[in-house]
Each structure stands twice: as C-alpha cells, then as structure tokens.
Design brief:
Number of strands: 12
Largest sheet: 6 strands, parallel
Number of domains: 2
Strand content: 15-25%
CATH topology of the largest domain: Rossmann fold
Shape: elongated
C-alpha cells in the first residue's frame, strides 16, 4: 500500500484539489489532513502510473505531490546536505565573494551541483581560488551571509523529540558545518576540511574529499547498514547516492538532474514538509526559535 502526499504552503491547499486527486489516483480510503489547508494524504493500492503527468498539470498551483510506501514512514535518522538545503547559500560561493572571485566560483558550483562537472575536481579548483583568504573571514560569512533554511530547526527538533538522530553530511567544509550544525541542532557533522596555515587558507582541501560516495558511506554507517530507516535530503548531484538509498530520499528545491532522479521531491514547501512526508501532523511539530 502507498500514500499519496499533497503539501503546499500554509493556507493554500484546497479541499477540492485533494478530492480531485483522490479520484484521479483511485484512493482506497478517506483523506487525512495533517495540517488544515496545508498538508493532506490518502492511501492507494499501488503507485499511480500518471503521477508525473498530474504533478506537471498542477505545477502552477505550487503543490508538492509525492507517492511513498505507507510502512516504516517515521525514520530514526535524518541525514542532510548543508549548502542550499539546510542553509540558503553555498558557503564556498560566499567565501569566494569575499575573495573577489564570486562569479567564477559560483558558475563552477552551479555546474558541479547539476552533475555537469566532476565534484572532486570542481571542489579543488574552487578552493584553489580562495588561497590567501584570512580564516577569520569564515566567522564573518557565517554571521553575515548565511541564513538558515525555513523549517530546518523544526524538522530536526521534531525528529529528535521522537527518538531520531540527525547528521549533517556536507561536501562543504567542517569550518562551517560544526557551527551551523550546532545552530540547527544536529547530533553530528561530516564535511571536507579547508587547510589553514598562519591564519590564512592555503588554497587546498584535505584528502580524501567527501563527495557522493562518502555521503553514502555515512548513511550506511549511521544506520548500521539499514538505510531504510533514514530520510535523506539534498539538492545537488553529489546527494543522489544517499537520496537513492535512503528509506525516504528527498530532493529539496533541487537542481534539475536531482529533482528528476529522486524518489521524492519538495519544490515549493520548506523543510517542515519532510515531517508531513513521515506522517507527522502540524500539532506534532516542535517549534524552535
């Protein structure tokens, strides 16, 4: 048995649309409203063959439509990417802006995250452009250029309140993940290490580089080789491995190649949508300032 999940921004989900989708997909029971006018779901016997067509038909309504197994929905691990997922920026792009090479690095980042460039080679090239940047700039960037993604603290706090663990696994840098992970409430972080010397960045990154394979390895380690117990979320091509293997794999506001390949996708709602996907109701959410 499968669940059809329908999520919008608060106040925008019309009951008429939910009823229409029940008819289109052959619902086998009534809809459950997880949040009035925001999130609803209903069961179907099997994944509908017309899901993608319907998703495209209602795209202008900014509705996140997904189909997922009804069993084992509430996960014991959240494993998340950081850049453009748990925060609104790409940290290396923000460092590059401070170094005066912002547009060049941002272009490489966009191409790498869309799968057009080898991730490791693109990372080495971008980090090389940061050579000589004072390390104190990192704290300045975190304080002044980084914003936490909406719903992230609530997602982490609610899952942890229900016994889950949360791991931040990033192709970015430990100098950011340690602080940002603590701000959001993550239990553990993994990322690459910018090499520093004499108070400046050397333009190099420690090996081995944490890329797609390392994210999959982290997923397997955190779950004791039971990835079905995890929900994974990311936006870039280097997230696809863990997204594909996790029990629930979610592309969040993702690059085109990731959104097309991911089992689940959230294009319009914030990170709290990952709680609705797991069957949490709005009344279950743990609100954090």
């Amino acid at each position: 048995m499968q669940i059809i999940s329908i999520i919008t921004r608060p106040g925008e989900l019309e009951p008429a649309l939910v009823s229409s989708l029940q008819g289109a997909f052959g619902a086998i029971d009534d809809a459950t409203w997880l949040s009035p006018d925001e999130a609803a779901e209903f069961p179907v016997a099997q994944p509908p063959s017309n899901l993608e067509n319907v998703r495209q038909d209602i795209a202008s309504m900014q509705v996140d439509l997904n189909c997922l197994p009804i069993a084992n929905r509430r996960k014991s691990l959240l494993i998340a990417d950081m850049d453009s997922t748990m925060i609104g920026q790409e940290c290396i792009d923000e460092l590059a802006a401070e170094a005066g090479v912002g547009p060049r690095v941002a272009d490489i980042t966009a191409r790498a995250m869309n799968g057009e460039l080898d991730f490791n080679e693109a990372l080495i090239e971008r980090v090389g452009l940061l050579r000589g940047l004072p390390t104190q700039i990192i704290d300045h960037v975190i304080a002044n250029r980084i914003t936490l993604a909406p719903g992230g603290k609530t997602l982490v706090a609610t899952m942890k309140a229900n016994g889950a663990k949360a791991a931040l696994v990033s192709g970015g840098f430990l100098q950011f993940t340690h602080k940002i992970g603590a701000m959001i409430g993550f239990d553990d972080t993994r990322a690459n290490q910018l090499i520093e010397a004499d108070g400046k960045l050397t333009g190099d990154v420690a090996r081995p580089i944490l890329g797609q394979d390392a994210k999959v390895e982290a997923l397997m380690t955190y779950t004791n080789d039971q990835p079905q117990n995890a929900i994974a979320v990311g936006d870039g091509a280097n997230d696809l491995g863990m997204i594909d293997r996790a029990g629930l794999g979610v592309a969040l506001h993702a690059k085109p190649v990731v959104a097309a390949a991911a089992p689940l996708r959230i294009d319009h709602s914030d990170l709290s949508a990952l709680l609705f996907l797991q069957g949490y109701g709005r009344e279950d959410f743990v609100q954090v300032k």
